[in-house]
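To whoever is on call:

I kicked off a structure prediction for a single chain this morning and the downstream step that reads the tokens threw a length-mismatch warning. I double-checked the sequence; it's 91 residues and nothing unusual in it as far as I can see. Pasting both halves so you can look.
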Amino acid sequence: MTLVNAELYKALLNAGVAEKLAADAARAILAAEGALPQVQMTFAEYLALSVDLAALKSEVRQLAAKIDEIKTVVTQSNIAVEDNIAVEETA
């Protein structure tokens, strides 16, 4: 396996992990937001839960940004591989 292929494989694995984490976090947010109106709680508990949800949403945004970064790296790697193949074919 070439270094480019190894890096591409690693980037794809990282993207898959990040996407799973983002999906899990999104499901947790939806479940928590759906439960809010049905749960009896004090205002302090509600505020604490709201802060937790805000933090979770922030993490999901960060994961989405990381996924975009990984996709960019994968795209650049694909372009580099295609360029290398074209150079080899013309040589």
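Update from on-call: the warning came from a stale cache, not from the record. Cleared it. Sanity check on the structure: Residues 43-90 form the longest helix (48 residues).
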